[in-house]
């Protein structure tokens, strides 16, 4: 089979995206990221490297943070996806995490923002207390080139503190 | 949070206007742009560092599914004008080159052909059907190779691979060095680094019935517009003459514009000579032919093809997107040729390969000092590797001029000499990267530590002894510019020494060594021309002040809001917020009532500088202040009539315009705008061209503390302190974010990031698994302390975009040497990954380079 034959093969997918059921025929070689961005026009999901390193394309798949550049759209068949567009309330009210990023000047260019916000959302959803050192490790799969991370860490810490209580220091003591 | 408050926005960390869209995924980055009928571009790129193109066969590719067109280098050449350098420096050879490689490839990733297809995937598929036969040439992979007389020449017309050579001498250098008690010399080398914003480069050339809109992630919309116009306006001589004849109005208006420009800049222009152009034309007479043609072509071009450049949200740049790219011109030319909209979004492999690289430089520095550690003379020999092609519209040669001015720092040598050479190699081209001159600071601050150690002085004492203090100001740097009375580099150093508590650290360091732990401390002090004093531009280049003014236009809109139009193109700097803070304070209106308009060449004032050079805050922030102040006068004048009051009795409170003492009977900005319209007057608007006023310096001292794991060579940074003085802070959170981001890139540069090539210039770091961007685990917390030297400057803003990365490599490498000094280690390289640390310590044998 030549590349072009592969490119022309499509398959049906059915999934939930930000609470809405989506049914489409999609070329099997289409990545989940391209499917979200191009087929569904949900361009909040960004492509930074397409190697699975930078984390900009992170989305939630059945609640877990995944790299949408490393998955095919057909692999997401039957799942529930949340993208950055799915976090704020329908009236535009920011989620507590998004609000915290605004309050703390979390981002600069914000190209990496969707990935950081969705990765951090899983930390809140998980509900397990963590230390500041844990937090650094948890977000070390997302790259930011602008901020030096301090403002991102502050934003997430404030939101986690609000939801779960204060973060422990690395020695385990609460701050 | 503070959005509804009025009057004290400047100085407050107001939350960002930008975040309202960016945090919910509703930003509009160039990859998000979709237009009707759009097709997609992909470039075939050279796998070889240096080769002749013997044959290209694109027949199969043209027949591949979805393919709309294929352009080879020669085909694209016939439709475009080449890149020609307009900023000729004496002693510079700047090759004439084309959007796609013609005849020869000179770097891995050199664009060889362009495929346009109905999807990006199909365009990429078709690349594989293009057959290219190469005849390999010997390559030039290092500065040493480029300097060696027998090396293969990249640009044979130049005669050798040194494309720029110049020596600047200040004072009697020979005499100072001959009589000095000590002369110390070291050769420093820094490695190739890359900006690597999270968003790559990209564009959409939108062809619609009325205009050509070029959507782009660009730092400078207006300069991109004219470089696209020049590049894509290629036409035959007969057609050009016909068009010029048919369009006398344009010629006339151009003639008028040119006359105005020449009159306005008479003084600056008279400082220029033609030595640069004469040098260039002697080497390549075709330069003149190309220049005349592209000039005539651009004048004659179809107005529908003069691009309107539109920049939306931009995912970072750090300098790389200030350079219009060869790919931009190729995509734009293809769109015009096909009459169809074309999209090109670079992928990360391309961006790592040919997006742009920087700082591959060697500096041999000598310092002449007396027994007391007074630095009497400095002499440096700088070689910059600009890679295969010169940057557009200017690059390494121009940045060496900044290095020349800044290298003595705020110290007071009696004599200084810099020999500069720029060489061509078969590596990716050089671009500006955040503080592109920064290695002058790195070499000088590194050298001061080395000299201090050899004289048995402390690293702080040698700096204090040699640095201009407040009581010596104002004074001229030996290279020309004035250090005004607000220059406070020494104050930042003194504060940093206090904060660092060096005495306590030395005790801890000694105790740690006894238990096998390696601790170090490093200081670095620098100043930066952001924007610089009025005599700075002349010190850079004769006539350098020509294009440096910042245009700002303010308008009272019909609905009573105020728009601030800027040629700046923010890409993370929060200009929508900071310029609005400044303007709202001047006008006395709520923050939400001001909108900053940027990125669209049809709407924004003309300016070629774009966003860069740490100019946003000082130049456009200052410009916003004065343009808003002028607009306020116009509003008050109009309101005085409506209120039947004298102008001097009119006040503005919380966005309400009223007679002093009776705020209850006020009118709104919308009332004023409405009255202007009803009276048939022109809208109220003000345009300023802000020259920076008295300008001034931003200055800082960085202190880095390191701990080195003696077993693994891993360096960690338990504490990092920045003491800086940038004048008034418009938005402290924005300022701190810029400084932290710059320091983070400096940490990356020293410990993690390297654009890797083998000795033959074969590229070896094409993913983020090879080119290591530091993560939240590696970047230390940065303590920032602001000094604010009292000032009576009306707009006392200095730029902070670049300084973090100017100071960090020096402070970090100084700290590393300090940690290893007892082992007899001298650090002369900027790249210090764990393996290199272990080599320096003698734990492992040094690998061959």
Description:
The complex is a heterodimer of chains A (175) and B (849). Helices cover 33% and strands 15% of the residues of chain A. Chain A has six helices and five strands, in the order H-E-E-H-E-E-E-H-H-H-H. In chain A, strand 3 and strand 4 form a beta hairpin. A seven-stranded mixed beta sheet of chain B has the order 3-5-1-12-9-10-11, sandwiched between helices. A five-stranded mixed beta sheet of chain B has the order 7-15-14-13-8, sandwiched between helices. In chain B, helix 16 (439-455) crosses helix 17 and helix 22 packs across helix 23. The interface between A and B is large, with 60 and 57 residues.
Q: Spans of chain A with pLDDT under 50 lasting ≥5 residues?
A: none
The dominant shape of chain A is: elongated
H/E topology pattern of chain A: HEEHEEEHHHH
Oligomer: heterodimer
Approximately what portion of the residues of chain B adopt beta-strand conformation?
A: 15-25%
Helix and strand composition category of chain A: alpha+beta
Helix content of chain A: 25-40%
Q: Which term fits the overall shape of chain B?
A: globular
Structural class of chain B: alpha+beta
* Terminal Cα span of chain B: 55 Å
Structural Rg of chain A: 17 Å
* Strand arrangement across the biggest beta sheet of chain B: 3-5-1-12-9-10-11
Strand order of the largest sheet of chain A: 2-1-5-3-4
Q: What percent strand of chain A? A: 15-25%
- Give the mean pLDDT of chain B: 95
Number of helices of chain A: 6
């Amino acid at each position: 089979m030549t590349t072009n034959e592969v490119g022309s093969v499509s398959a049906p997918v059915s999934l939930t995206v930000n609470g809405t059921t989506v049914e489409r025929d999609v070329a099997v070689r289409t990545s989940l990221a391209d499917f979200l961005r191009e087929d569904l026009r949900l361009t909040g999901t960004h492509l930074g490297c397409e190697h699975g390193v930078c984390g900009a394309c992170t989305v939630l798949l059945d609640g877990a943070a995944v790299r949408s550049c490393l998955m095919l759209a057909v692999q997401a068949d039957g799942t529930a996806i949340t993208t950055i567009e799915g976090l704020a309330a329908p009236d535009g009210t920011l989620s507590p995490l998004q609000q915290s990023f605004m309050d703390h000047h979390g981002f600069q260019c914000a190209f990496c923002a969707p990935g950081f916000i969705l990765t951090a959302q899983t930390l809140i959803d998980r509900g397990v207390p963590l230390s500041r050192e844990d937090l650094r490790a948890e977000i070390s799969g997302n790259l930011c080139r602008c901020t030096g991370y301090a403002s991102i860490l502050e934003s997430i810490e404030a939101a986690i503190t609000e939801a779960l209580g204060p973060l422990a220091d690395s020695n385990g003591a609460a701050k | 949070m503070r959005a509804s408050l009025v009057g004290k926005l400047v100085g407050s960390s107001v939350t960002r206007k930008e975040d309202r869209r960016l945090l919910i995924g509703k930003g509009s980055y160039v990859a998000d742009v979709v237009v009707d009928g759009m097709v997609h571009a992909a470039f075939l790129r050279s796998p070889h560092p240096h080769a002749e193109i013997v044959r290209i066969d694109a027949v199969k590719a043209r027949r591949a599914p979805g393919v709309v067109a294929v352009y080879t280098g020669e085909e694209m050449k016939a439709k475009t004008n080449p890149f020609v350098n307009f900023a000729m420096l004496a002693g510079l050879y700047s090759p004439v080159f084309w959007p796609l490689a013609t005849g020869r490839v000179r770097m891995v990733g050199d664009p060889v052909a362009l495929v346009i297809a109905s999807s990006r995937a199909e365009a990429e598929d078709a690349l594989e059907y293009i057959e290219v036969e190469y005849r390999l040439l010997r390559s030039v992979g290092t500065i040493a190779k480029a300097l060696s007389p027998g090396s293969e020449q990249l640009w044979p017309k130049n005669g050798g691979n040194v494309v720029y050579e110049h020596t600047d001498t200040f004072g009697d250098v020979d005499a100072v060095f001959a009589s000095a008690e000590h002369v110390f010399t070291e050769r420093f080398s820094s490695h190739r680094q890359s900006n690597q914003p999270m968003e790559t480069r990209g564009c959409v050339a939108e062809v619609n019935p009325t205009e050509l809109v070029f959507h782009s992630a660009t730092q400078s919309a207006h300069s991109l517009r004219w470089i696209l116009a020049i590049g894509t306006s290629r036409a035959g001589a007969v057609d050009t003459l016909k068009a010029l004849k048919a369009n006398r109005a344009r010629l006339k208006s151009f003639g008028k514009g040119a006359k105005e420009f020449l009159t306005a800049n008479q003084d600056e222009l008279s400082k220029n000579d033609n030595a640069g152009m004469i040098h260039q034309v002697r080497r390549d007479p075709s330069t003149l032919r190309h220049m005349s043609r592209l000039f005539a072509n651009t004048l004659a071009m179809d107005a529908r093809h003069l691009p309107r450049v539109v920049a939306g949200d931009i995912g970072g740049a750090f300098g790389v997107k200030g350079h219009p790219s060869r790919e931009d011109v190729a995509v734009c030319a293809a769109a015009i040729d096909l009459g169809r909209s074309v999209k090109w979004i670079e992928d990360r492999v391309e961006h790592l390969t040919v997006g742009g690289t920087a700082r591959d430089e060697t500096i041999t520095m000598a310092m002449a000092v007396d027994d007391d550690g007074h630095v009497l003379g400095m002499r440096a020999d700088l070689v910059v590797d600009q890679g295969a092609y010169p940057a557009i519209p200017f690059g390494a040669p121009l940045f060496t001029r900044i290095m020349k001015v800044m290298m003595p720092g705020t110290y007071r040598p009696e004599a200084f000499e810099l020999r500069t050479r720029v060489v061509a190699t078969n590596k990716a081209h050089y671009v500006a990267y955040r503080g592109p001159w920064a290695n002058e600071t790195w070499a000088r601050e590194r050298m001061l530590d080395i000299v201090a150690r050899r004289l048995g002085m402390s690293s702080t004492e040698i700096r204090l002894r040699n640095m201009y203090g407040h009581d010596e100001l104002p004074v001229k740097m030996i290279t020309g510019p004035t250090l005004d009375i607000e220059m406070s580099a020494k104050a930042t150093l003194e504060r940093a020494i206090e904060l660092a508590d060096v005495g306590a650290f030395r005790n801890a360091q000694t105790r740690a060594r006894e238990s096998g732990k390696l601790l170090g401390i490093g200081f670095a002090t620098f100043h930066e021309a952001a924007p610089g004093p009025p005599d700075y531009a002349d010190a850079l280049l004769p006539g350098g002040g020509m294009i440096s003014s910042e245009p700002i236009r303010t308008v009272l809109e019909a609905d009573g809001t105020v728009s601030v139009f800027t040629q700046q193109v923010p890409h993370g700097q929060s200009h929508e917020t900071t310029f609005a803070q400044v303007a709202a304070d001047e006008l006395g209106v709520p923050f939400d009532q001001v909108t900053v308009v940027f990125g669209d060449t049809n709407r924004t004032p003309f300016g070629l500088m774009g966003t860069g050079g740490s100019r946003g805050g000082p130049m456009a922030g200052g410009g916003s202040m004065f343009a808003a102040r002028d607009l306020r006068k116009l509003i008050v004048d109009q309101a005085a009539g409506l209120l039947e009051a004298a102008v001097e009795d009119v006040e503005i409170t919380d966005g309400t315009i009223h007679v002093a003492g009776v705020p209850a009977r006020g009118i709104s900005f919308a009332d004023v705008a409405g009255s202007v319209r009803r009276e048939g007057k022109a809208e109220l608007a003000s345009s300023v061209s802000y020259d920076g006023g008295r300008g001034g310096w931003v200055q800082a001292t960085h202190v880095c503390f390191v701990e080195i794991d003696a077993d693994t060579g891993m360096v960690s940074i338990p504490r990092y302190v920045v003491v800086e003085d940038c004048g008034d802070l418009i938005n402290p959170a924005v300022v701190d974010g810029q400084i932290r981001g710059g320091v983070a890139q400096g940490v990356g540069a020293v410990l993690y990031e390297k654009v890797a090539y083998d000795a033959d210039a074969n590229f070896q770091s094409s993913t983020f698994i090879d080119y290591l961007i530091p993560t939240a685990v590696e970047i230390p917390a940065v303590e920032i302390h602001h000094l604010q030297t009292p000032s009576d400057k009306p707009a006392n803003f200095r730029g902070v975009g670049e300084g973090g990365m100017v100071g960090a490599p020096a402070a970090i490498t100084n700290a590393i040497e300090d940690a290893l000094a007892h082992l007899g280690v001298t650090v002369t390289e900027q790249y210090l990954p764990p393996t290199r640390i272990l080599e320096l310590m003698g734990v492992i044998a040094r690998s061959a380079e």
